[in-house]
From TrEMBL:
The gene is panF. GO terms for molecular function: transmembrane transporter activity. It comes from Luteitalea pratensis. Coiled coil: none annotated. This is Pantothenate permease. GO terms for cellular component: plasma membrane.
């Protein structure tokens, strides 16, 4: 019964995507015709930002580490505030004036083709990790709650996201995401009071919880350090910036992204608390990332468990379509039209972007079937993306003397340093500092040295 309801919900999402994009053009696919209102922009950003890591992953961190897991989603909210007030309106004006449709278009106009090509490579390598993370979470959810084999869970999520996104790109995604955002926030928000013990959470927790379980800034491996890992990604993420391009004006950017930031900051406490509640009734789970699926299956009334399950399904699928958006539009615009066939027409780009969406979805499903941890997989994506793109994008907006050589030096130094330290230290970093922080420092240093040499 649960699986049938989920499949019906998935079919409804596909229908909404198809209906809203029956006459989609290339401009609709890439930037929704630049007519997203503040409400639609906020909805599509919320749906993109609340995914596997923000729900299943954050609840698992709450189960293991306590309330400090707030920083996993809270860091995204703080980064979104910077996007709303500083970066977003400025880059939207440039995109509207010069008809930019991807972040690669901006990097090309500011630094040249080489920088755009390198960004596209980083994007493809990193984004496939986050796409697989969404499908891993969805597969684990369907396996725990509905008994669906893990492989088929990955396939179901990949097919649903690919079908409604490929219908119309950002135009169809924005309509579907508005429904998904309402379902996912309402479903998990209602689950919290229903699972809350009458004696209070603090009293009901088993004595085996760590001593820092209620420390707001640091508990276990979670805490304020997530701000360095995640915050920059939500300022310069190519997928989020391309959604910002779709706003109808700079005011819509400020309001829509700020609403998204406010929702993220408020929502950030819900998954960790649900994970902590799961520790009350399931104190010995072999895998902490099972906390939320087990809570939905065993500790909620059937109707509410079904709604929360639909919320999680929405979360995983909506973020998967956001990643497909980044991957397919970057391939069609930055690689195909930018390098392989500069004279490509709008119709050709539209065909390529749809084929790229299908190929990306297929590769993401294959990686999800093979890969493991949700949080580890997403951490890899955020680290590489932040270290490789944050400094060049911000320097392009605010440092006039930064050029092609400086941007390339910053991107290469940041990405290579982060990747090497991630592999060499298994993510632990050096001197207690995460690899992504060293990567950002290396990127900023490379930019500064290149500017001095030029001068």
């Amino acid at each position: 019964m649960t699986l049938a309801l989920l499949l019906a919900y998935a079919a409804a999402l596909i229908f909404i995507g198809w209906w809203s994009s029956r006459r989609a053009t290339a401009a609709d696919f890439f930037v929704a015709g630049r007519r997203l209102s503040p409400a639609l922009l906020a909805g599509t950003l919320i749906a993109a930002n609340i995914g596997a890591g923000s729900t299943v992953g954050a609840a698992g961190l709450g189960y293991r580490d306590g309330i400090a897991a707030w920083w996993w989603v809270g860091s995204a909210g703080l980064g979104s505030m910077v996007l709303a007030l500083v970066v977003g309106p400025r880059i939207w004006r440039i995109a509207a004036d010069q008809d930019h449709r991807t972040l690669g278009d901006y990097l090309k106009s500011r630094f040249g083709d080489d920088v755009r090509a390198l960004m596209a490579v980083l994007l493809w390598c990193g984004s496939l990790a986050i796409l697989s993370a969404q499908l891993i979470a969805l597969a684990g959810l369907l396996e725990t709650v509905a008994g669906v084999p893990r492989t088929w869970g990955c396939v179901i999520g990949g097919v649903v996201a690919t079908l409604y996104f490929a219908a119309g790109g950002l135009l169809s995604s924005a309509a579907v995401n508005a429904v998904q955002a309402i379902v996912l926030v309402a479903g998990l928000a209602l689950a919290l009071p229903a699972a809350w013990p009458s004696s209070g959470l603090h009293a009901a927790l088993p004595p085996s919880v760590p001593s820092d379980y209620w420390h707001p800034f640091s508990g276990g491996s979670s805490g304020v350090m997530y701000l360095a890992l995640l915050g920059p990604s939500f300022i310069v993420s190519p997928g989020l910036l391309q959604k910002v391009y779709g706003a109808r004006d700079a005011r819509a950017v400020r309001i829509g992204v700020l609403v998204n930031a406010g929702v993220l900051l408020a929502f950030a406490a819900i998954p960790p608390l649900l994970g902590m509640l799961a520790r009350v009734s399931h104190p010995s789970l072999p895998n902490h990332e099972l906390a939320l699926p087990m809570l939905l299956r065993d500790d909620l009334p059937p109707w509410l468990g079904g709604l929360a399950l639909a919320a999680l399904f929405s979360a995983e699928v909506s973020t998967a379509d956001a990643v497909l958006f980044m991957l397919s539009t970057s391939l069609a615009r930055d690689l195909y039209a930018g390098h392989l066939r500069p004279a490509a027409t709008q119709a050709e780009q539209l065909r390529v972007v749809r084929v790229a969406a299908v190929v990306s979805g297929t590769i993401g499903v294959a990686i999800a079937i093979w890969a493991g941890s949700i949080v580890r997989t997403m951490g890899l994506f955020y680290s590489v993306l932040s270290a490789g793109l944050f400094v060049p994008v911000v320097a392009g907006l605010f440092a006039r003397r930064a050029g092609r050589v400086q941007a390339l030096a910053a991107m290469i130094a940041g990405a290579v340093t982060t990747a090497v330290l991630q592999i060499a230290t298994v993510g632990a970093g050096i001197a207690g500092v995460a690899p992504v922080v060293w990567g950002l420092l290396a990127s900023a240093t490379a930019l500064g040295v290149a500017l001095l040499v030029r001068r």
